Amino acid sequence: MDYQNIHVEEKAEGIVVITLKRPEKRNAISIMMRQEISHCLEDLKASSRIGGVVFTGAGSTFSAGFDLDEFTQTERFGELFESSTKYHRNLWYFPVPTIAAVNGPAMGGGFDLATFCDIRICSQNAVFGHPEIKFGAPPLFTPLRWIIGDGLARDLCLTGRRIDALEAYRIGLVSEVVEADLLERAVAIGRSILEAPLGSLRFVKRYLVNNANRGFEESFGIEHDQAFQEIILI
Q1: What angle do CA 67, 168, 148 make, to 5 degrees?
Q2: 0.90 surpassed by pTM
Q3: Could you give phi then psi for residue 56, rounded to 5 degrees?
């Protein structure tokens, strides 16, 4: 299917790259873009062949965040809410690994997109921040605190301050700062992930998503006991 706001391409066997494609708007995430990403992910999750998805941005920006022009159109608030809640849940519950290749600024909703991915790498030009707090829009806190810890997540969400690629690496927000071809590196990570059987990856992704607030016994029962029954003893 052809999309207007994203470009979708299979870069390697089983690895799909979704490029945010509104460079003239710094890849601001509009209602239509969210709808297109949701539709694309729903198609991809039905595939028995796709084992990983990479997100990146066209041009020099990953994403400047949600398209603020749409927030002034009160008649579209229903569309805003519906597209946002569906898009975020489609990202979070996507059944195979996702990688954010953050090629430049990732602000507001662009920052959220990165935190909803399983793995984040970035270029030296990457910048992260939640400036929306200054305009009265509460940032998404919980996925961020699961990555970098409660204290640092509170700092970034409350102050709206920006951090560069090196600080993002230092606090564990990204696992690599890539000097050369960022997308090539992201696809290589995807290939490495797909050295594992797809069934095992789907099982692990399921408990990565669902185990965040479980205690040890419940988590161990899934990650060890259920894994033995469903994966290892097949």
Answers
A1: 90
A2: yes
A3: -150, 180
58-95: pLDDT as tens digits: 999 999 999 888 878 888 888 988 899 899 999 999 99
* Beta-bridge partners for 29: 66
- Would you give the distance in Å from CA 60 to the centre of its chain? 18
Q: Are 234 and 226 in contact (CB under 8 A)?
A: no
CA separation for the pair 92, 115 (Å, rounded): 9
Q: Using alpha carbons, select from 200, 26, 16 the residue that is nearest to residue 109.
A: 26
| Catalytic member of 9, 13, 132, 176 | 132
Q: What tokens appear for 68 in the block?
A: 């603020």
Indicate left, alpha or beta for 88 from its phi (over 0: left) and psi (-120 to 50: alpha). Answer: alpha
Summarize pLDDT for 26-58 with one digit per residue, the tens: 999 999 999 999 999 999 998 989 999 999 999
Structure tokens at 59: 């041009």
- Return d(Cα 119, Cα 47) in angstroms, integer: 21
Which residue ranges form the domains of the chain, and what is each CATH number?
6-193 (3.90.226.10), 198-232 (no CATH)
**What residues are paired with 7 via a beta bridge?**
19
Let me know if 9 is a catalytic residue. Answer: no
Distances (CA, A) of 180 to 63, 85, 143, 177, 189: 20, 35, 28, 9, 14
Q: What is the dihedral angle through the alpha carbons of 227, 231, 233, 234, rounded to the nearest 10 degrees?
A: 150
What gap in Å lies between CA 107 and CA 109, rounded to an integer?
A: 6
Q: Is 67 helix (H, G, I), strand (E, B) or coil?
A: coil
